[in-house]
Write a structure and sequence with these properties.
- The structure holds two protein chains of two kinds.
- By secondary structure, chain A is α/β, with parallel strands linked by helices.
- In chain A, 30% of the residues lie in helices and 25% in strands.
- Chain A has a six-stranded mixed sheet with strand order 6-7-8-3-9-10, sandwiched between helices. In chain A, strands 2-1-4-5 form a four-stranded antiparallel sheet, covered by helices on one side.
- The longest helix of chain A is centred in the C-terminal third of the chain and has 16 residues, at 173-188.
- Chain A is globular.
- Chain B has two domains: 8-64 and 271-414, no CATH class; 74-262, no CATH class.
- In chain B, helix 2 (32-70) packs antiparallel against helix 8 (264-303), helix 2 packs across helix 10 (322-363) and helix 10 (322-363) runs antiparallel to helix 12 (395-403).
- The longest helix of chain B is centred in the C-terminal third of the chain and has 42 residues, at 322-363.
- The relative contact order of chain B is 0.17.
- Classes of the chains: A alpha/beta, B alpha+beta.
- At the A-B interface, helix 2, helix 3, helix 4 and helix 6 of A face helix 1, helix 9, helix 10 and helix 13 of B.
- Bound molecules: adenosine-5'-triphosphate (ATP) and magnesium ion.
- Adenosine-5'-triphosphate binds next to strand 2 and helix 1 of chain A.
- Magnesium ion (MG) binds next to helix 1 of chain A.
């Protein structure tokens, strides 16, 4: 589904050049649940941004469903984002002038043929535990609540690929668990998920885990099979450190 | 996993789908301060534009009405009084002047002249019960007249009999009541429609009655008035449909020395000079207001640029095409422009309806309210211009959209 070939993204600032992503190669197949761990500033968000076509790589190629996204028109990428990709930003990114439910419905505006969006939006808000605050404006929500609305929004168009940048970063353990269960269910139903997190406890939900260090992506789940989700965490960490 | 429940009362509130227009409406409604500022700025532009159109249109309308009331193609006046005559017709500043009517027979005989009639202009005294300022008394010869007579024919109940007067629209006094001029009592027999020109402040009477009034004035009035017999102030001429008014006017001037001719076209020109100054003033204030408002609008949109940029980035990241976001911003600007435009036009209308006469009087232009259709056309033109200005003010968000690197904005955003 996603193929990343030698992708590099560098930023030149006044005093130095930062290689946020440095010659990364990797492949994500349909139906995988990929988790990316890594220290702050290691380039995780930048990588996800390039995957969704929101920012372009300095070098390298990104193939989405076999298409080189650098060759797609702006409109075509927009359409792809609207229909196929659900994105949860690291910062929730809600529109302030509309309420929670309307924020969830927002992506349905960009693919008009999508049916029954309002009831689906309401269902999703319930699933993320936000049904009580459906009519609340973002400025009145806590950051964890905003994050949950953003998660519902990312799912409203039933994307085949969910890209989530620290979706549970602001959440308590119980809510995090609920969200992760929701993701797992979606994954079982066929949604490919790429998720960034700082919480290595979540590795058990993933089919593949990667670790990012200074722009380099290293596969860290060698033997981890798709359904071995209850494999003890220490086991995984051993493999990472080895 | 939280079970899917969809039974709470909140779910009933969400029957309405989110759509493009709702999004625009929400964006406007939920940013009241910025939007009120924008609407207000556009309202000022609209009020200025509309006022200019309205005043210029009203002056034009007034000229047309006044000239058709005059009913003549040519007005022959003594050479030295031609500018006084113009003032009488345009602004109703009363004057008295005479020249020997010896030429009258001669004028009637000039080829191309279909009808000719005499008028005598006498200024009334100040302080009449009817009026705050002196009025123009115009004595006509009902037998030959074609200025007031056609109007009389249209109003069959009205007759200009002995001591009757027909008053201009601005003269105070009910029909049937009495008015005194130079001590002589007249009855108001009819009232003319409004023209915005001098005739609104004029009083028409029969020549015989005017002579009687003048003869009695040394006894009855505080100040005597003399109307020399055999003298007239003006000869009104209607030309044959086949003849050209300018050609006939030329013949009159050459054949009867000491006369000057005034034609509606000439009047129009005279007025346009006067109107021109006001028009220029109006147009330049229009320009000034517009040029001040555009940076103001730009400033208002720059104030919210950050929020705007973030909003654009989020929409783009969620899959909105550039054209969609562009359309959203334009629809928002246009809605604000239309609201501001309508507000400005309504405010200007309210002022005009309330203070129309005062405004026209202080601008010293002939004026009557233009017909509804003209007002509507002016309002539409104003709205179109406002939308244009609104479009300019949405250039800024458009540039943001065109240059947007959505991800950069989202990374930096705090929301
Ligand atoms: N626009 C930019 N200009 C300059 N440097 C940038 C820019 N965007 C990202 N970087 C740099 O690239 C590096 C990677 O940033 P990125 O946001 O991808 O990190 P991250 O792994 O998501 O970190 P975190 O876990 O804190 O979210 C950082 O050093 C950051 O400073
Ligand atoms: Mg990040």
């Amino acid at each position: 589904m996603i193929e990343i070939i030698g992708v590099t993204k560098s930023f030149s600032t006044d005093c130095s050049e930062v290689r946020a992503v440095d010659d990364v190669h990797f492949t994500v197949n349909r139906g995988e649940f990929v988790l990316i761990l890594g220290r702050s500033g290691s380039g995780k968000s930048t990588l996800l941004g390039m995957l969704s076509g929101l920012t372009r790589p300095t070098a390298g190629t990104i193939l989405l469903n076999g298409m080189d996204i650098s060759e797609l028109s702006d409109d075509a990428i927009s359409e792809l984002r609207a229909k196929e990709i659900g994105f949860v930003f690291q910062l929730s990114g809600l529109i302030l002038t509309i309420n929670a439910l309307e924020n969830v419905m927002l992506p349905t505006l960009f693919c008009p043929d999508y049916p029954g969006s309002d009831s689906r939006a309401a269902d999703l808000l319930t699933k993320v535990g936000m049904s009580e605050r459906a009519c609340a404006y973002p400025s009145t929500l806590s950051s964890g609540e905003m994050k949950r609305v953003a998660i519902a929004r990312a799912l409203v168009n039933a994307p085949s690929l969910l890209i989530a940048d620290e979706p549970t970063g602001d959440l308590d353990e119980a809510t995090e668990q609920e969200i992760m269960e929701l993701f797992r269910q979606l994954n079982r139903e066929g949604t490919t998920i790429m998720m960034v997190t700082h919480n290595s406890d979540l590795i058990r939900y993933a089919t593949h885990t990667y670790r990012m260090t200074q722009g380099n992506l290293i596969k860290s789940d060698g033997a981890l099979s798709p359904r071995l989700t209850l494999e003890p965490r220490t086991n995984v960490n051993d493999k990472v450190s080895s | 996993m939280v079970p899917v429940v969809n039974t709470g009362k909140w779910s009933e509130k969400i029957t309405a789908q989110l759509n493009f227009f709702k999004l625009v409406a929400r964006n406007i409604a939920n940013r009241p301060y910025r939007n009120l500022a924008t609407i207000f700025a556009i309202a000022i532009i609209a009020a200025t534009l509309f006022s200019a159109f309205y005043l210029i249109g009203g002056a034009q309308e007034s000229l047309d009405a006044g000239i058709s009331r005059m009913g003549a193609d040519i007005l022959v006046v003594p050479e030295e009084y031609s500018s006084a005559a113009q003032t009488v017709i345009l602004m109703g500043e009363p004057n008295s002047f005479f020249f020997k009517d010896a030429g009258f027979e001669q004028i009637a005989g000039i080829p191309g002249v279909a009808k000719a009639s005499l008028q005598i202009y006498v200024g009334s005294l100040a302080g009449q019960s009817c009026c705050s300022a002196p009025v123009q008394i115009i004595a006509i010869d009902p037998e030959h007249d074609f200025t007031v007579s056609p109007w009389l024919k249209e109003n069959p109940g009205v007759m200009l009999g002995k001591d009757d007067i027909i008053v201009g629209n601005m003269i105070v006094g009910d029909i049937g009541s009495d008015l005194k001029f130079y001590g002589h009592t007249f009855h108001i027999a009819g009232r003319l429609a409004k023209t915005g020109m001098g005739v609104d402040m004029a009083v028409f009477m029969r020549t015989e009655d005017a002579y009687v009034m003048a003869d009695e004035s040394p006894v009855k009035a505080v100040q005597r008035v003399t109307i020399p017999r055999g003298m007239v102030s003006a000869v009104l001429v209607k030309v044959d449909p086949s003849a050209s008014p300018t050609g006939v006017a030329e013949k009159i001037r050459t054949q009867i020395p000491g006369t000057k001719t005034i034609t509606p076209n000439g009047l129009l020109n005279a007025v346009s000079v006067q109107l021109g100054a006001i028009t220029r003033l109006l147009y330049s204030s229009m320009l000034a207001v517009t040029f001040i408002s555009i940076p103001l609008l730009a400033f208002i949109s720059a104030m919210v640029a950050n929020e705007r940029r973030k909003e654009v980035a989020i929409l783009r990241a969620l899959g909105a095409k550039k054209t969609y976001v562009m359309g959203l911003m334009l629809a928002e600007s246009f809605s604000l422009a239309i609201m501001g435009g309508i507000l400005g036009i309504c405010a200007a209308m309210v002022v005009f309806v309330g203070f129309e006469d005062l405004i026209a009087f202080s601008l010293k232009i002939p004026f009557i309210a233009p017909p509804l259709l003209t007002i509507l056309a002016d309002a539409c033109l104003t709205l179109v211009l406002c939308i244009g200005i609104g479009g300019i003010s949405s250039l800024y968000p458009a540039i943001i959209i065109a240059r947007s690197e959505p991800y950069e904005t989202i990374r930096k955003g705090e929301s």
